[in-house]
Amino acid sequence: MKVSIRPENKNDYPIISMINDMAFGQENEGLLIEKLRKNKSFIKELSLVACLGNEIVGHILFFPVNIKSKEKTFKTLALAPMSVIPELQGLGIGSQLVQKGLAKAKKLGHESVIVLGHEGFYPKFGFKTAGSYQISAPFDVPENSFMALELVKDSLSTVEGTIEYPKEFNEV
Ligand SMILES: CC(C)(COP(=O)(O)OP(=O)(O)OC[C@H]1O[C@@H](n2cnc3c(N)ncnc32)[C@H](O)[C@@H]1OP(=O)(O)O)[C@@H](O)C(=O)NCCC(=O)NCCS
After folding, report:
1. Would you give the end-to-end CA distance of the chain in angstroms?
2. Atom of ligand 1 nearest to the CA of 60
C-alpha cells in the first residue's frame, strides 16, 4: 500500500501519540515521543509520518544517541519508536517509513543508525546485528534484536562502545 511520507508538524502531535499507543497497546512510546520533542537534540525532519490521503497511519522517529567508549564518543541515530496502525500493518507501510527515513537521515549527513527491534524486519534494509560491529546495548537484549546500519560505508568499522540513550528513554 503506497503512502506519502512527510515530516511531522504541530497539528500531528496528538495523532502521532495515538498511533503509537494503538500499535504498541500502551502509552509509553507516545509519551516518549512527547518528551523527546522537548529535548534540544530532536530533529524535526527525522520524525516522519505516513499518510493515506490526509490521514496519518504510521510514524517513525530517528533520534541522536551516542556510542560511547572510555576514550571517545561517536554520534549515531537510534530508530525508535516506529508504528503503523494495527489495521494496516503488514502492508508495506513500515518498510516505506524505514526506507524514506534512512534516505533522509543520509541526506542530512548522518552516518549510521542503530535499532532495537524485530530481527526479521530490519536486515532487509541492510541492518546487521550490532555484534558484527564493536557496539553494545546498555542493557541486556537478545543478540539478534540489536542492529546497526552504516549509511556511509565503513562509518562503523572503527567505532567501539556502548549506546548511551538520552534520559527520556529511561523515564517511560
Ligand atoms: C513494526 C511495524 C512498525 C512494521 O510496520 P508494517 O507496516 O507492519 O511493516 P511492513 O508491512 O513493511 O513489514 C511487515 C514486517 O514487519 C515485521 N513485523 C511486524 N510485527 C512484527 C512482530 N510482532 N514480530 C516480528 N516481526 C514483525 C515482519 O518482519 C513483517 O515482515 P513480513 O511481512 O515479511 O512478514 C508495525 O508492525 C507495528 O507498528 N508494530 C507494532 C509496534 C512495533 O512493534 N514497533 C516496532 C518496534 S521495533
Report:
1. 32
2. 3
